[in-house]
Amino acid sequence: xxxxxxxxxxxxxxxxxxxxxxxxxxxxxxxxxxxxxxxxxxxxxxxxxxxxxxxxxxxxxxxxxxxxxxxxxxxxxxxxxxxxxxxxxxxxxxxxxxxxxxxxxxxxxxxxxxxxxx
Length: 118
Known about the structure:
Elements: E1 5-11, E2 18-25, E3 32-35, H1 36-41, E4 48-53, E5 59-71, E6 74-83, E7 90-91, H2 93-98, E8 101-104, E9 109-112
Parallel strand pairs: 2-7, 3-6
Antiparallel strand pairs: 1-2, 1-5, 4-5, 5-6, 8-9
């Protein structure tokens, strides 16, 4: 499967200030990752730390917080990771689930899917 990016808007919890970024759609990433300076600029508070396993099997710890995420006409509150300087923004699996979106790997797009209440 190829990789692709989408434009997302990240904002403060109140929804008054947003920044648009191109984020790599990464279903292998649990959470959405953004550079720390972007989240700090928006006034996103650090709410703790989490451990993460990287692609090279290293374990690291990064701060986490909560932000408003807009994608197209939809929005949700997501857990975000304060990534190191220069990190490429990643749109993670939980944000896709919150927005009821799945990856269409053939057309490299996000597609709506029904949420489950079984």
